[in-house]
Amino acid sequence: MVRTSGAAPRLAEVLGIVLGTDRVPVRLRAWDGSEAGPPGAPVIEIRSRRALRRLLWSPGQLGLGRAYVAGELDLPGDVFATVAALTATGRLTEPVPLTVRQRWRLLRTAVSLRALGPEPAPPPEEVDLGGYGGRHSKTRDAAAVSHHYDLGNDFYTVLLGPSLVYSCAVWDDRSGGLEAAQEAKHDLVCRKLGLRPGMRVLDVGCGWGSFALHAARQYGVDVVGVTLSPEQAALGRERVSAAGLAERIEIRVQDYRDVDDGPFDAISSIGMSEHVGDDQIDGYAAHLHGLLRPGARLLNHAIARRTGAPWRTGEAPHDPGTFMARYVFPDTEVLSLTRMIGALEASGLEVLDVEALRPHYRLTLRAWAQRLEEHWSEAVRLVGEGRARVWRLYLVAAAWTFESGRQGVNQVLVQRPGGAPPSLARPWRAPAER
After folding, report:
1. What pTM does this model have?
2. How far apart are CA 134 and CA 132, in angstroms?
3. What is the DSSP string of 193-247?
């Protein structure tokens, strides 16, 4: 029998304060069996008073995220629907500081539910890079990449599938599945870069070598791939060797800033520049410009935030207090498309094409989330339940971000002046005959 008195109504008041609404959009189920909130709404289970204490200390997405990762809060139904309901008011995505009165209400509720106490320690999955030097130093960038990517190649194989591609796919339709969509993305990049046999290509942020393998196999080019993740590089080299392409593809553990053996006939940067940072993006563009031959192209594939819509009004694009910064992508800065194009143009590169892929990333993220659910037990075995929960929440929240239009993803194709003039047409629109 469901209890309508007890802890749940008071927890609903707390959640309403955090979300900035008098009508809580979810159904709360408390540790004492009581429930409150609209019948039929997505359910949140509050398993422990400790979850309330986390919200008292961090009343927003970070407190909720910590409670979920620690298992003190659960989302037993459709996680996509629950996240959509929680973010509908906008208070979790663009937090507004609580008033003194609201904080007193939270405090009184915590006292009444015997949840008052010192701030709980963050779950062990939370990262603090403060000991690795200044943001976007080479040492700290390597530590940030290691936190996210060095979870074990077996985990990423479970999550991403055989393609091992961790960036937005290009879906011609939904019937082909994730593998076909990732291959279509790689081929689109190759066509945009105008790859031809014998060309030398740099792949910045090469991951597990998937783009390098496609470009070398299908277009006959030689590829240098660089990554900061030793685990990525190790598996990438194994895949290159197994494909019989060791003489065509070199995978390095190397910071892009240390690449000095240009010139290259083309450069791909797919899902890497988000790690560069606003302060470094001009130097990034200038360095890649210097590695290109005259007339050669660079394709930059990156997530972008809407211009004028930072995480918090008046703050820089990077907010260290978010769930993403603490658990998923430390130090990542999602820049606007205008900022990215401005940096590329300021370096002397000419823009040839810009293509928005936001709807494609929605499908990609949902496909990854589905794989995670289908292989949940294996994921927990590989990285632990806390880390698997981080990834579940991250993928669902990211999918909502792209579905709602808060962020997009774009391919910007640029060319270093010199050499042959740009084509009057866009020959990459249809697969080339090879």
Report:
1. 0.91
2. 7
3. HT--TT-EEEEET-TTSHHHHHHHHHH--EEEEEES-HHHHHHHHHHHHHTT-TT
